[in-house]
Design a protein that fits this description.
Layout lengths: L4 E7 L6 H11 L18 H6 L6 E7 L2 E7 L7 H8 L4 E7 L6 H12 L5 E5 L8 H14 L4 H4 L3 E5 L4 E3 L14 H10 L12 E10 L3 E10 L7 E5 L7 E4 L3 E5 L2 E4 L8 E5 L9 E3 L17 E6 L15 H14 L4 E4 L5 E6 L2 H13 L5 E2 L3 E2 L2 E3 L2 E3 L2 E9 L3 H10 L3 E7 L4 E9 L3
Helix pairs in contact: 3-4
This protein binds guanosine-5'-triphosphate and magnesium ion.
Length: 452
């Protein structure tokens, strides 16, 4: 009998409660022992994530609920880490879209929903944080419907299931309840909805193997590890495979060492894995994101992942100031270049180019935060370098120069409306929507050129 499996990604705007929700799904499925003390937002396990209280990298975990294995991907909400969301979506068959019950859909809700809809996924909408005093679930659902409609959702996608939740308090409900009360006993309503609406195992276990690598990891014992979902076929430790970078890529062969699956926050060894399972594989030293691990006798590579283009670029340069060499131990052009090349393997939205000048590299990403986090990471590892001011990346589409445009949402007290409108007007922002909430606050939406 094949295993019962569901693969989901949790997506949302910044701070709408994704990582907190994952905590509760882990807790309520009995992942932690009674006495085990678990930190909040346990998936945010990198130093910079914990310090800043934000998610930067998409990460896997898995829970068991009523004999079903549910792989869960927590994703970041910041626009700058959109590449991580795109990467995560390549591993799942369904998404749980969280929307803050008070704030409603925000710019990044739009971005992640658009990606999910385009992939043909049918989101489950979770109206989250319904415990907030300003929660307005009906308004949020209507706004979600309008958003889906505007983004060209199919009738089936428009008919999305809705769950209400207070992730932080660990409860969910299919029905709306009284403000201030607890609407449901626990997370069951959300689990049930996932089991009901996310497609179960797809793909033929007897077909040629096809597994696209969507993430990389590293262990000092086994070296590089590829993470991905098996779309078809079966995989065992020791198996001979072919690896291909898309249909036009050149195939090379290798041998799988170990196969692991996710269980809670841990990884467990598997003797065999089949369609829809998300696995970690070791043994192929040079494996890269987007590549397909397939059957050498009958290779069936998937197209490489599609990731949006960078919008911002900065020069990373060797520090030539008089104070050079005081802060870091890796200071040479070669060392900086090698570190950037390493970053490119897993940081899917990043681009790195050499320039005409020795020791100056052009590093492009999705925004200032994206590049700042990389810089901070490098500094902590002991790299010393100088950087230039960020510049906007222009794109030429059909011979016409295009500049990136952003949607800005300002949620402010009415008293500040004049000042904010003036400031955005000076930067040539174009007001697209203005909505007073009737309680002294107003929401302004602007289209504005990428500001640096
Ligand atoms: N009132 C209320 N607050 C919540 C709830 N869930 C999360 N929060 C709070 O919202 C904030 C953000 O929570 P996170 O879980 O880190 O949000 P996130 O979506 O993972 O954030 P990013 O990954 O950075 O996009 C934290 O301060 C939480 O305590 C909830 O159900 N109700
Ligand atoms: Mg998070």
């Amino acid at each position: 009998m094949s295993k019962q499996i569901r693969n989901i990604a949790i997506i949302a705007h910044v701070d709408h409660g994704k990582t907190t929700m994952v905590d509760q799904l882990l807790r309520s499925s009995g992942t932690f022992a009674e006495h085990e003390k678990v930190v909040d937002t346990v998936m945010d396990n990198h130093a910079i994530e914990r310090e800043r209280g934000i998610t930067i990298l998409a990460k896997n975990c898995a829970v068991s609920w009523k004999d079903t294995h549910i792989n869960i991907l927590d994703t970041p909400g910041h626009a700058d880490f959109g590449g991580e969301v795109e990467r995560a979506l390549s591993m799942v068959d369904g998404v749980v879209l969280l929307i803050d019950a008070q704030e409603g859909p925000m710019p990044q809700t739009r971005f992640v929903t658009k990606k999910a809809l385009a992939l043909g996924l049918r989101p489950i909408v979770v109206v989250n944080k319904v415990d907030k005093p300003g929660a307005n679930p009906d308004k949020v659902i209507n706004a979600a419907f309008d958003l889906f409609d505007k983004l060209g959702a199919t009738d089936e996608q428009l008919d999305f299931p809705v769950v209400y939740a207070s992730g932080i308090n660990g409860w969910s409900s299919k029905e709306e309840g009284e403000p201030g009360a607890q609407w449901g006993p626990d997370m069951s309503a959300l689990f049930e909805t996932i089991l009901e609406h996310v497609p179960a195992v797809q793909g033929d276990a007897n077909a040629p193997l096809q597994l696209q690598v969507s993430a990389l990891d590293y262990s000092t014992f086994v070296g590089r590890i590829g993470v991905g979902r098996i779309t078809q076929g079966t995989l065992k430790p020791g198996q001979q495979v072919a690896v291909m970078a898309g249909p036009d890529g050149k195939a090379y062969t290798g041998k799988i060492n170990q196969v692991h699956t996710f269980q809670g926050l841990d990884r467990v060894q598997a003797t065999e894995a089949g369609p829809s399972e998300i696995v970690l594989i070791s043994g192929i030293e040079n494996i890269g994101i987007g590549e397909t691990v397939t059957d050498p006798a009958n290779p069936q590579p998937l197209p490489m992942l599609k990731i949006d283009e960078p919008t911002l670029t900065m020069n990373f340069c060797v520090n030539t100031s008089p104070l050079a060499g005081r802060e870091g131990k890796f200071v040479t052009s070669r060392q900086i270049w090698d570190r950037l090349q390493k970053e490119l393997r897993s940081n899917v939205a990043l681009r790195v180019k050499e320039t005409d000048e020795d020791g100056i590299f052009e590093v492009s990403g999705r925004g200032e935060l994206h590049l700042t986090i990389l810089l901070e990471e490098m500094r902590r590892e002991g790299y010393e370098l100088a950087v230039s001011k960020p510049r906007v990346v222009m794109q030429e589409i059909d011979g016409v120069k295009h500049e990136p445009i952003e949607l800005v949402t300002a949620d402010i007290e009415e008293g500040h409306q004049g000042g904010v409108m003036q400031a955005l007007g000076e930067r040539k922002g174009e007001l697209v929507n203005m909505e007073p909430d009737g309680r002294g606050r107003v929401r302004l939406e602007y289209r504005i050129l990428r500001v640096v």
